[in-house]
Design goal:
Pfam families: UNC-50. Its main location: membrane. Keywords: Membrane, Transmembrane, Transmembrane helix. The chain is an all-alpha fold. The protein is built from nine helices and no strands. The radius of gyration is 20 Å and the shape is globular. The N terminus is likely disordered.
Length: 250
């Protein structure tokens, strides 16, 4: 049986018990020698080819350290560097202004990945704790909560395959995806459908890995909405690749 904890640290991003964890986490960011980049690379690979294997290791982490969230910021650091590098490639290809390029790179890292990720993690953390926790039938059982940092880990895990598809693959295929043709519209919509659906599928796996949650299939509901919307987007001639790049580069 997995160890349980009633520590207030698991209850939210602002709880007092969470401060030492966050302090240690942030301190390790400036100490690369304390980060496990080899494990992070393995985890990123597993999230793309065998995501259930990746989340099985979450249980092992809980058994050894008694908390679900990673205490190693290597994953976040690598994601930030990869997003910045990809944004640089897009700027070289589509931007003509150094200042605009600088702003785009910062926006990709601090808005697209971090800020939106913080918002998504907070919403997922709130929904899971408020509505999805199993109600104990025994009054003496220890009540468990989803750690906010674990919710952020779920976003980061889900973001990497999305990054591969919507940053890397889209860049490689951009000469085709940006054509004004029906085929390009179909391909762009399929690419975004797969990327966003896989993001939500990984989110579902992350929350379903917690044994004290139930009805985690709610995190798959956006996938159904995406599948329904995409055919209408294709028929309307909406090309998400052109739309996204127009936002950044005009």
């Amino acid at each position: 049986m997995l160890p349980t904890s009633n520590n207030v640290a698991s209850r939210g991003p602002t709880s007092r018990g969470n401060v030492p964890f966050l302090t240690t986490y942030l301190r390790r960011i400036i100490k690369p020698q304390q980060m496990d980049f080899e494990y992070t690379a393995w985890l990123m690979l597993q999230l793309c080819i065998a995501p259930k294997t990746a989340y099985r290791h979450t249980s092992y982490h809980k058994q050894t350290k008694n908390h679900w969230a990673r205490d190693d910021p290597a994953y976040v650091v690598i994601c930030c560097l990869l997003v910045a590098a990809a944004a640089c490639a897009y700027c070289v290809a589509f931007s003509s202004s150094p200042w605009h390029s600088f702003f785009t790179i910062l926006s990709a890292v601090f808005v697209d990945f971090l800020a939106i990720g913080l918002a998504i993690a907070t919403v997922g953390w709130f929904l899971a704790n408020k509505f999805l926790r199993k109600r104990s039938l025994h009054g003496h059982a220890i009540e468990q909560h989803v750690e906010w940092m674990y919710a952020f880990d779920i976003h980061c895990n889900s973001y990497f395959p999305l990054f591969i598809l919507l940053y890397v693959l889209q860049f490689v295929l951009s000469p085709v995806l940006l054509w004004r043709s029906f085929v390009s519209t179909i391909l762009a919509n399929l690419l975004y459908m797969v990327a966003l659906s896989y993001y939500h599928y990984l989110s579902f796996l992350g929350y379903s890995a917690l044994p004290f949650l139930e009805h985690t299939e709610v995190f798959l509901w956006p996938v159904a909405a995406i599948v329904i919307v995409v055919p209408f987007a294709v028929l309307a001639g909406f090309n998400p690749s052109r739309f996204t790049l127009n936002i950044y580069f005009g």
